[in-house]
Every structure is written in C-alpha cells, then in structure tokens.
Amino acid sequence: MSVVLGKPEVPQHWLLDANVLFSEWTRWLMVALAERRQATLYWTPHIENECYRNLVRLGRLHADDANHERRALPGRLQAVLLPQNHEPYLADVRQVDEKDRHVAASALALRHELQQPVGLLTWNLKDFPRKPLLKLGVVRMCPDELCVELMKTKTGLQACLEQSVQLMQASLATQPSQNPTAYQSKASPLPRNSEDWIQFLGRNRMHKTAKVYSRPN
To answer: Which pTM value belongs to this model?
Structure first.
C-alpha cells in the first residue's frame, strides 16, 4: 500500500536551485517572499557556479560583471552560501535526476544540519520526485507554487510583487552593470500596471500567480 503524504507546510529554510537564481527578478521575489515567511535563503558554490556560467554563456552578463556580482550576491540577498558538503547524501537521493542530484543532496545536508524541513526551490520539478524528497524532509516547489501558497489574497500578492520590483530597482541602482550586454540593453521595462503584471508573470512562468492576480478585488 502506498503512503499518502499530506500537503506540507512551507519550511523556513529554502535552498535555491541555479535556475531560480538565474533571473534577477526571481531572486528578489524570493527575498520578498522570504521576508513574509521569515525564511532564510541558501545555495552552494556548485549551484552558484552553474548559475553564473550560464548567465555568461547566454550573454546575459559580461564575465567581469558576473564575477563582481557573484561575490556580493549572498550579502545582497541576505542569504547563506553553504559549504559544498553534499556528497555523503548523494546515495539518499538516487531518484533525483543525476545532473540535479547535488542540489537535492545539498538540501538534505541542510535538513540534517538544521534538524528542520527544508524547501528546495527549482523550476525543474520533474527532475525532483516529490514523494521521495518529502519523506526525507525536503519540500520541493517552484517559485510559482511558493508564491501562491504564501500569498493567498490579491492584495497581499500585489504588495509582494511591488516589493520585488522595488528591491530589484534599488539593487540595480547601487550596483549597475559596468559592461552592459545586448540582452540587458534590450530588456523589457518592469511592470507598471495590472495588465503589465499579468503579461510579465506569464512570461516568467508564474501562471498560477497570474491567475490569483487576475481575480477581482
């Protein structure tokens, strides 16, 4: 007989996968959501390497800007850069896709260190089987699911989204790119009204959040 696992509470410790760190706006959304949940953000050097390697490879950031930004990122996001100590836990997460196993093992290492459940935030849900991880005390979610889970009302959601933009703008103002890429120069403006937000959320895979945002007040 299979064990039915109930819907878990959102933990107060969140390990961010590289694909979540990749987007400047999603980073600041995580900060805004963490403030509401009184949660702490984490990642590892391996995750950080993957994120910035892809940002440079895809022309999102100049290599010099990437190196400068990377050194400051944990402090800017009030996050914790964990030691790379996931290897003892790799055997426990064999059901996770091999290329992502280090992420799940890092979340499990943090779970054992804290003796508390840990959230694993990723866009690659299919590579992280929910049930096996949940049995280990790791709650895997995507940013869209997390946002809807924490922001139950449109009013609260609007405040959180606006805060994410304010945080992002403040960060970019204090640490502008010294070598802007073509991608950065052509970036679409941030949302200013409800219609902009619905389109923006859709482009950023936040489809469930967009539905909440679209509800009447």
So the answer is: 0.94
